[in-house]
Amino acid sequence: MRKVYFLLCVLAVHTYANAIVVNTYESMPSSSYAQDIENQIDNVVNEAVEDVEMDPISSPESAVTCDPNTVIENHAPEAKRALEEGLAIAEAAARGEDCQFYEKFLDQDVPIEALKQSLLYYKKNKSKFKNKNYITIADYSKNSKNKRFYLLDMKTGEVKKYKVSHGSGKVRGVTYADATISDSGRVTRASNHVGKLVRCRVPAKAKPKHDQWAMTRPGFFKTGEFYMSSGHDERVKGQRGWPTFKSSGRNYNGMRLDGLSKGVNDKARSQGVVMHEAYYNRGNIMGRSFGCPAFVPGEGREIMEKINNGSLYYSYVPNEGCRSDYNKALKDVKGWERMCTGRN
Fold first, then answer.
1. Smallest Cα–Cα separation from 15: which of 40, 49, 41?
2. CB 3.0–4.6 Å: which of 82, 148, 200, 329 could bond 219 by disulfide?
3. Is the pLDDT assigned to residue 116 strictly greater than 90?
4. 274 CB contacts (<8 Å, ≥6 apart)?
């Protein structure tokens, strides 16, 4: 009885998992990667078969069916493991983890260095990310006139692009994110609002509360939960507030972020760095935020609903004035240059 039941589970694993693989790679019938995935599934099942051969006596009392879409707590241990691991392998392939869509992403103009760095960080830290369906990258080396926020679909390889603002670094009337500062440290022009991020730290001479005050933080983040910021409620603040959006029947206006790059952005949550929409982002040049990645009104909800609750967001800032923070973040992705080259 146990072996018959177990064979049903094996059949379910193969039917369901191979269907995922075939569906994912139907346009690539000669893909060696697809074959590798199928081989991995076979290995899991073969190991489970060996386990059951060594323990042929015990028998599950309540389990009579083996449907991958049902609860599997009552399955025989080997069958349960085969289901869980086999389906995990197949679904990982369907999500397009690691380098499956690397070339496709590049063809859609995702910046190559940011892509390699984010894919390697994701590969090394998958367990940190509950939401594995998307990776997002903000390329702050580009002007804010451009669509520089990339939403990477890890299931399909499709990319959507959006505009996003960077922080102002504003302290006592000077926007240090783009101000002109002489070699002696004197501010010669308080603002250069042309869409370019120049630096990520406020000079000590400005005496800010901290040197990342209202500044963009480089590095890797994990997206958090939706929330309603009462201090930016548009019902009170008008267009100085953040646009409200509705999700699952509740009103929100922001999504929290957790910084993962030590010494660079790990205080993001406590310092109020979040994602949100902003009314100041309606012109050709995006407005400047208080350090948050802020979107055009009406566009942020679509992004945040997809990436909330545990996806990877990479704030890519190789700009000269942010180079120290950028280099610190890269310590977590040593060897990123080899990612997706076949040598990683």
1. 41
2. 329
3. yes
4. 227, 229, 254, 255, 256, 257, 292
